[in-house]
Amino acid sequence: MKITNELKEIIIARYLLGESAYGIAKDFNLHGSSILSMLQKSNIQLRSKKLTNLEQDEILNRYSLGESYQTIANNLNRDIHTIQRYIKSQNIKIRSTKDTARKYGLNHNYFDIIDTEDKAYFLGLLYADGSNSTKYGICAISLIDEDSDILLKLAQHLQTEKPLSKPKRKKESHRQQSCLTITSRKISDSLNKLGCVPAKSLILKFPTEEQVPTHLLTHWLRGMWDGDGSYYITKRNLAGCNITSTKNICEGIQKLIKESLNIETTIHKRKNSCIHYITLCSVAKVKKFIEWIYQDSTIYLQRKYNKANLILEMIKPKDVN
After folding, report:
1. Which pLDDT belongs to residue 305?
2. Are 226 and 314 within one domain?
3. Are residues 118 and 189 in the same domain?
4. Most confident of 11-15, 184-188, 254-258, 275-279
5. 257 alpha carbon, distance to own chain's centre
């Protein structure tokens, strides 16, 4: 089976989320060596198979403190199966998924139905930056440390006191991340039904009316924009904003913006990629969009909200007329 560019992006995404090369290979009827070779050619740093003594000590320590296999794997940049095998080989009592959730408490029903601003917003954020493994009943979301406040708010809404983890940086130049990992088959299944599916990078679809009611779509979109969108100011002091996602998501956003704001947008496709994006460059369009996306909002990423306000402050009346 030939590894197409689209399949290549899916494989890389799954490997970076902690899946093993051989586990991915099995899903696509490929040889594990083919996956490893492709990852190396794509300049993806491969994980070492053997655990160091320091890693072994940290794994046992983290597990004793109540962290899940997935959280430990994320922190150490290791395959979850490696973590599981090592812990089981140490003849210690293995916690069940329920035990892990019970330690911190959790509202397993939070995502049963999207009927409030906060649920719509967090679903959008998870669409953009979250991962969902229905196989293990685990979902996670990682953001740069600067944005960790929004993860703490999500934890608060989920009624859990589980602390954020700090994944080990792959390179010194990489920015430190904060990660919230939720161990709950109920939440994982609910998110899957709401469109936040496993290995979603290239197959994500715009939510249906049943998944996110029309009156809550702006809050969902604000969550998406906080994850995969941006606001920017060019060197010539021109304002703009854009969002990157799948073609289906971009088409849905394009339709929503047209129906809500009567603004025409164009969908662009990245060269040699299946990723698409929408850009708003007109000052009038950007102003109208920002005012709309934050209207009646109580939850958002503070960093992007500040950037959006900065853009509004620099826009003069004559620029809009």
Report:
1. 95
2. yes
3. yes
4. 254-258
5. 23
Overall pTM > 0.85? no
Lowest mean pLDDT among 32-41, 45-54, 127-136, 198-207: 45-54
Q: Which amino acid is at 107?
A: N
Region for residue 272 given its phi and psi (left: phi exceeds 0; alpha: psi -120 to 50; beta: otherwise) = left
- Cβ-contact 278, 254 below 8 angstroms: yes
Mean pLDDT of 15-19: 72
Our count of domains for the chain comes to: 3
Q: What is the DSSP string of 149-160?
A: HHHHHHHHHTT-
Co-location of 111 and 194 in the same domain: yes
* CA–CA separation, 246 and 148 (whole Å): 26
pLDDT tens-digit map of 138-162: 888 999 999 999 999 999 999 998 8
- Outline where DSSP puts E strands in the chain: 130-133, 138-144, 177-183, 229-233, 239-245, 267-269, 276-280
Other CB atoms within a 10 A radius of the CB of residue 298 amount to: 8
Do 105 and 45 fall into the same domain? no
CATH for 233: 3.10.28.10
Do 198 and 270 sit in the same domain of this protein?
no
Q: Rounded to whole angstroms, what are the CA distances from 110 to 29, 123, 236?
A: 37, 11, 45
Lay out the sheet containing 229-233: strands in order across: 229-233, 239-245, 276-280, 267-269
Quick: pLDDT tens for 260-280.
Answer: 999 989 899 887 778 899 998
Q: Given strand 130-133, what is the order of strands in its sheet?
A: 130-133, 138-144, 177-183
Tell me: do 110 and 196 sit in the same domain.
yes
* Residue showing tokens 């909200």: 305
